[in-house]
Amino acid sequence: VSHQGLRWVQCTVVALGRFPTKAHAESSRRAFAALPASVSAAGRDWRRGGAVGGSRRLADIRRAISIEASVVRKGDILDVKGHKYIVSKVSDQLTNRKMFKNVEMKDIQSGNTKTETFRAAEKLQKVYVSHVKRQILYVEGSTVHLQDPETFEPTEVHVNLLGVAQHYLEDGDLIDLQINEEGEPVICNPPAKFLAEVASSDPARDQKSSYKKCLLTNGRQIMVPGFIEPGAKIFVKLEGGNELYAEKAS
C-alpha cells in the first residue's frame, strides 16, 4: 500500500469520526468495511500504532505469565479456569505450619465475587493489561459504543463494565480502559469524581453536622450534608462501588 493510500485511510478515519453520534459511528463502520483489503489492513496497522509515532501497539502488551500465589496483590487480574478475575483482597492463612493465600476476586464478565484459597507456592496465571483512552459515543441498550479519540476506531463494551460509573458518565466523556493481550477491554477505570446536580432532598435535622438523603438529576440517591439544597452542584466520588458525597462545586 502506498504512503498516499495510507494517508487517505487516516483522513477518512478523522473525517468520519469527528462527530461522536450514532449515525456517524455507523457510517464509519460501513466505510471501513468497504475499504479494499490491502488498504484496510494498512489502516488497522496504523490505528493500532496510534496517530503519533506508532509507539503504542497492542502487540506490546505482555501475555499472561505464571506467578506464585504468595506475590498476588490487590488489583491483579488472574486467569482461573478460563475466567478473568480482578483481585479485591488478599490475606494470609497459616494452617499446619503451611502458608496459604485467601484471594477474594470478582469475575470481570459476570461481576460475581468469590474467595479461593491457594498454597503460597501454587502457580497462578496473571494477565497483563495495557491502559488506553476511549471516548463514549452513545449507549444503546446494554451496549456502550466507544471510539479511540486519536484514530476514531470504534469499540463496543457491555454497560456492566462501567459499573456504577455508567450512571454518571455522559456522551463524549473520556474513560480509561485496561485491555488484555487480545485487545479486549477487561476493566474500566472511571474518573475519580463526577459533577452532579441535586434535584431534591429530605429536610435536614442539623444544617452543620447531619446528613440527609437527596435525589440527583440522573436518578441516583446519595447522602449529602444538611446544607446542600436542591439545585446545588456537587461532586460525587465512587469508592468500592459506593456513591459518596465529595464536596460542593464552586
Your description of this structure?
The protein is an alpha+beta fold and 250 residues long. The protein is built from 3 helices and 16 strands. It has helices at 3-17, 22-34, 37-49, and strands spanning 65-68, 77-80, 83-95, 98-107, 113-119, 123-126, 130-140, 143-147, 154-158, 174-179, 185-189, 193-201, 211-216, 221-225, 233-239, 242-248. The strands form 3 sheets. Strands 1-6-2-3-4-5 form a 6-stranded antiparallel β-sheet, with no helix packed on it. It has a 5-stranded antiparallel β-sheet with strand order 9-8-7-10-11, with helices on one face. A hairpin with a 2-residue loop joins strand 7 (130-140) and strand 8 (143-147). Helix 1 packs antiparallel against helix 2 (22-34) and helix 1 packs across helix 3 (37-49). The radius of gyration is 23 Å and the shape is flat. The termini are far apart.
